[in-house]
Amino acid sequence: MAERRSVAADVVGSNPTSRPKFLSTAPILTSRSTPGSRPTSQHSNTPSGPRSAWLSDFRPRRWLANGHLQTIAGNLLPRMNHLPAPETNIVEVAPATAEIGSSSLICLCHWQPDVQAPTVIIVHGLEGSANSQYVIGNANKLWTAGYSVVRMNMRNCGDSRYWGGEQARGSLDRAALDPDSICPTLYHSGLSGDVRAVARHFVKTRGVSRIAILGYSMGGNMVLKLAGELGDDSMPESYAPEIRACVAVSPAADLSASAGALHRPINRVYERRFLRALERHYLHKVSLYPERYSAARAYNLNSIREFDEHITAFYSGFRGAEDYYTRSSASQFAAKISIPTLVLHALDDPFIRILPQTCDALRANPNVSLIETRHGGHCAFLADADPATSDDGYWAEQTALRFLLSLPELRP
Description:
Elements: E1 11-12, E2 21-22, E3 29-30, E4 41-43, H1 67-76, E5 87-94, E6 103-110, E7 119-123, H2 133-144, E8 148-152, H3 192-206, E9 211-216, H4 218-230, E10 243-249, H5 255-262, H6 268-288, H7 304-316, H8 321-328, E11 341-346, H9 356-364, E12 368-373, H10 395-405
Parallel strand pairs: 4-12, 7-8, 7-9, 9-10, 10-11, 11-12
Antiparallel strand pairs: 1-2, 3-4, 5-6, 6-8
Helix pairs in contact: 2-10, 3-4, 7-8
């Protein structure tokens, strides 16, 4: 029998490219029992044993126990949006050099009247944007709870078609908000420094002093990587004391393993969707910067790994796709995370794989709560709604909020 993970009595198999198999054995929760403390890990939907007050059971929504169904429904179901119109900010994340101009990205901000309110920076996933459904869902919950919210678009991301009414509070015109025109570089999963640059921008311009970073999928890897860099004494340039906590949902913390899983036949529909979007995005970049990028590099690509080999790595200073994955994965910083951090991962996520050694490093870190559920899909975690308690059924969003509220330094 393959090796079992240490806290899971219902999971066998440690091959990161294989789907987890489930046994009927009762699940076990290993956690601290001190009130308000963060559990080391949870590996089921119905854990037994002591745990923190902010953590609730996850039971998948009826008819959505399958990871693919969770993933698809979570992507398609719209969220209710009651956010006030955002303030639009263009934030420079990389200065100009002799070879290339400066790179900037677009943040949509919702500021509480109380300037001392804590701020949460939300980072989307691959080919997502500040308008992705999970970003809207989290932003609404956080805003209602008293947090200021920054919906951060990665470099080149964000669709200006959605900004017409949203830019009413800014003086920026639509042309200035073209995400590609203000950023000659490409985005990738290793750009944790962009999240730090956004945090520092609002520390300087708004006097923000208490920040949490929250990311999904690729954005989850970026915020988790940054959380580790903040605790790395060999990287003093990463110091940002205003960043007090991190939440990573379905993080692509082991990029190579996840790229391999994405290329499995059962996941090709997801890979083709990502690949076609990346190619369209890249070819638009070529049209804007023909002297820098070549359209020929996008021809005959059949996988995300090939895209990363021929485009991402080539133009971003990596030796190849594997070098990019190794240097950009948050897993290498798991042991160095020094701020309260929550990681949510579903074992039936179709294509995100967190390797056993990464899980071990996260579990061994007293600052990290690794919560793994048997079901939940990718960035979904759809449970049944409970109108009586104002629970809309988006378990990951509710859990992230409760986690942040449990931290005294981040309470509104």
